[in-house]
Amino acid sequence: MVYNNIFTQENNGITTITINRPKKLNALNKETISELHDAFKSADQDKTTKVIVVTGSGEKAFIAGADISEFAHFNVDEGTELAAKGQELLFDFVQNLSTPVIAAVNGFALGGGLELAMACHFRVASDNAKMGLPEVSLGVIPGYGGTQRLPQLVGKGRAMEMIMTAGMIDANQALSFGLVNHVTSQEDLLDLCYKIAAKISRNSSVAIRSAIQAVNANYMSHVNGFNVEIQEFGNCFGTDDFAEGTTAFLEKRKAEFPGE
């Protein structure tokens, strides 16, 4: 598929999705959100893709936020619809994707950019990364899940401070907060993500899908995550991956998971 604002590349079971709006510091507009949805959906449906890595083009920004020019004159109904559709189409969609998604955060990850990174299953940052939710400086609040996912990741107090001050934190602060898993140099960022992705790819994609559902259940209202875990654990026993994994262990050989 041909996109206007992103490009994708698949190699060794890893699909890389790159936001490519360098003149706008990769800011998210409606078209980019729609294209990202299509790219994530396509990669998730591709059985050869075991891991997805999302990043931004250039050295300055992962995503520097939403494209403010697109909604500066919206009214209440339009603003509500913008957040609702964006969350459904991209942010919630990515969080609940069956395929693991790693955010390779290079440079600025602000507003919607940080919200997309937080929707990914985990994050790796370059040492020049800057992260924040500056929306209150514009008279609005984060609308793509930022008020919910940031406290889950860094705790309520730190999230409140970041949101209320509209300030940025650097990569090392993000690491100490638990917002990112690793920090590395910009030139090594994708290589580290691919190294981690390769480790993930060697495991059962069916079991990983169940693990994603079970972990996410812990953050859903009115859902008992322990029950989801029990159900997903049981479901694994009916898969070809379970049969192969246990047989390979008993035969003392490397498992070759069929992904079914």
How would you describe the overall organization of this protein?
This protein has 260 residues and is an alpha/beta fold. The protein folds into two domains: 196 residues, Alpha-Beta Complex (2-enoyl-CoA Hydratase, Chain A, domain 1); 46 residues. The protein is 46% helix and 17% strand. The chain is built from ten helices and ten strands. Strands 1-2-3-5-7-10 form a six-stranded mixed β-sheet, with helices on both faces. It has a four-stranded mixed β-sheet with strand order 4-6-8-9. Helix 1 links the parallel strand 2 and strand 3. Helix 2 runs parallel beside helix 3 and helix 3 packs across helix 4. The protein is globular and about 60 Å long. The relative contact order is 0.11.
What tags apply to this protein structure?
6-stranded mixed sheet, alpha/beta, 10 helices, 10 strands, 2-enoyl-CoA Hydratase, Chain A, domain 1, single chain, 2 domains, globular, 260 residues
Report the β-strand fraction as a percent range: 15-25%
CATH top level of the largest domain? Alpha Beta
Per CATH, the superfamily of the largest domain is 2-enoyl-CoA Hydratase, Chain A, domain 1
Any idea how many domains?
A: 2
Q: Which overall shape is indicated by the principal axes computed on the Cα atoms?
A: globular
Main sheet attributes: strand count, strand direction, barrel closure: 6 strands, mixed
User: Approximately how much helix is present in the residues?
Assistant: 40-55%
Decide which structural class fits the backbone: alpha/beta
CATH architecture of the largest domain: Alpha-Beta Complex
Q: Uncertain runs with pLDDT below 50, 5 residues or more? A: none
Number of helices: 10
- The CATH topology annotation of the largest domain reads as 2-enoyl-CoA Hydratase, Chain A, domain 1
Q: Average pLDDT value?
A: 96
* H/E series: EEHEEHEEHEEHHEHEHHHH
